[in-house]
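User: My collaborator and I are trying to settle a disagreement about how two of our proteins should look. Neither of us wants to argue from intuition anymore, so we agreed to look at predicted structures for both before our next call. Could you fold the first one, then the second, and keep them clearly separated?

Assistant: That sounds like a sensible way to settle it. I'll keep them separate. The first protein:
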Amino acid sequence: MQAMKFNGSGSEYFKIWIVNILLTIVTLTLYYPWAKVRNRRYFYGNTELDNQNFEYHATGKQLFAGYLIAIVALIAYVVIQQVSPVGGVVVFLILFLAIPWIVWRSLIFNMRVSSYSNVRFGFAGKLGGAYFNFLLLPIFLFLAVYGFPIMAAILAPTADGDVASVGPMVGVFFFIGLAVAAYLYGVMKQCNNAYIINGSRFGQGEFKTDLKAGPFVIFLLKAIGLTILGIFGLLLLISIAAMLMGAGAQLGDLGAAFGDPEAMNDIFANSLVISIVVVMYIGLLFLSIAIFTYLQVRQREYILKNSTIDGRIGLASTMSARSLAWVSFSNLLAIIVTLGLAIPWASVRMARYVANHTQVDTSQGFSDYVSQRQSEQSSLGDQLGDAFDVDIGIGI
């Protein structure tokens, strides 16, 4: 296994980033597609595997058409909603139903404009699969989360108008809904990742993956358990802090020596409130990052471990939840402290971390395999199609 490399630097990317920001503002966001192309070309071009780099071939002009359509659609929705609420609902439903098609077109376009060692990627997934994965499954998951409690509230017996009798049944339906939702979450993650990976191509080579829903369910349940433990620990920490501050507040009586004991008590009381708020905010922020990174790391490890290229080139992830959480949290802290100026540094740092912890099996004929794909490249069409560009997250 050989790890990928990222050769970019924060200072180098800062020049690209700040120019993109300024031009996007000056052009009232119309420069955004070109800014996105410059960003992606920088990150693709600086990502290396086996002494060969990736490339991004799209142009700002190609992305501009899709961006303009999105802006027009948003403006139309806002205007129609103001004129006719019913019309706004209709437009919203149309846009909602178009999401899987947009995702499908984005996958096709982004794969076709990406390459490694002069070999283009591709996507062969069907539109029907996009609607199943990005419309039906999310709807089922939403219904499982919210449908069972609502159903319990509607159908539960309310003899003699005793609302309290509804409580136990609502609780039962709520936990049943959570169990169904956890299972559907696993199914959705399995299907989403399988659809994207199995539909991906490298030249005429095929990506393959064999995933099960069970591991995703287990990852989710563990994340929920860690969340509960984290909240309990945070509340315990806050309680201890409150007790200590309360004991300190009693020292406010010493302020009598200075002629104003009530002022001293007020100071301690205010300090107590501020300390609790700060601890709670920072604790919840770090807990959220920790849980998110845990899910991301475990899912990524499982997905790559069970994925190959043409069944012969293996993939692996060496990320750890602790290190990714630290990189994410410290990046966020740096961005806040610098009022956003550290975004380029944070982006490069994260890109380097992800690349260094992504491994590809280059030991057995990898160079020959890439050369074979290169020889087949001339037979592939080079038409890029319409540009509908959205970022798709699949857990890797």
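The second protein, kept apart from the first:
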Amino acid sequence: MRVFRACLVAVVATLAPGVRAQPAAPVPPAPADTAPHEFIDDAKALLVVGACAEGTAPIKAEVYEAHCKKIRAAQQDYKAKWLVPAGEFFHANVPANIPKTVVYPFAGGDLATALTVFPDADEITTISLEPAGDPRALTRLGDKRLRAPLAIVETELSSLYRYNYSKTMNMIDAMRVGQLPTQLIFSLSALATHDYEPTAMRYFELTPDGDIRYLTDTDLTKLDKIKDPRKLNTALSNVELRFRKPGGREQVYRHIMANLEDAHLKKAPAVLNHLIKKGRVSAMTKAASYLLTFNEFKTMRTYLADHVDWMVSDSTGLPPAQGTAAGFEYETWGTYEVSNMKEGASVTPSWKKLYAAQPKRPLAFRFGYPDAKLHNHLIIMRKPAS
């Protein structure tokens, strides 16, 4: 469903000589309902019930205590085994002077890694086929119907923390057709794991020019006519979370549901226009099914080549041929011999050649896909300072 913005059209009449102007008619007031609807209370409830932070929620604790026991164990394991070594690596290897606006295409629900790479970002934008989802689902489902949807969240969130990526088909079930706002819960879990607290949450749509228009109470009244909770989750696709560490500055995270394939971007260019308006950015991607090597994703390859100053990826990032032609320098970490899936076969020779030409740099943690022999690998791209 598309929500249309109301606009006021002023008509100016040209008067003939000698015709006395009539008093202007009063200008009707601007619509009262232009303020964004604030969802912070829903965010805080989901933070407790789905992402398992400490606090209270309008759901009986016994409904989610087993779920949270497993989620907290996965979060603690993630912190100890992945976040510590990865955080140390990125602290040492991410320059302080790169753009603080971050773009992460094909991200699924992976705000957690973005916060590890870019903890001081002003703004992080993830883009994927998954919707943020309806944050009011806890109230809609109630105590009796929550356990099964929570089990899906538990399985996929634990998998993300264990393997550092999620399988696309699993994301379809968990995020696109799930009864809970699974993508949003993943993002709230990322905030909790990194010791951030949410300060505001709004939903939005993009205008054709790529500008943000926040949803209002009137918009929600219209959307609530959708009775299928799965369709409502999809209708509430794009979310903005503002967050901070205790006593720290406010940062912004936005998730946008969009298909980044060329034909879709041509038909619905709002997301591309939005990204272009950000100017120079930093970027990352991983576990992206090698989509950036496909002919159908030339537009996104071009955007990254033209607008990124610094980027980190696994072997599903910007291929060496396109990146080198755009002026990027590549730096390889870990070991890469052969793609872990057939979709990466076409780019494997160029990655192998790049790795062979560079010094051996060990990598102590997994970043996205391993190669077919389970080697960890990671690639940094940078534009040389002009």
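Some points you might bring to the call about the second protein. The two ends are 45 Å apart (CA to CA). Residues 1-24, 166-171 have pLDDT under 50 and may be disordered.
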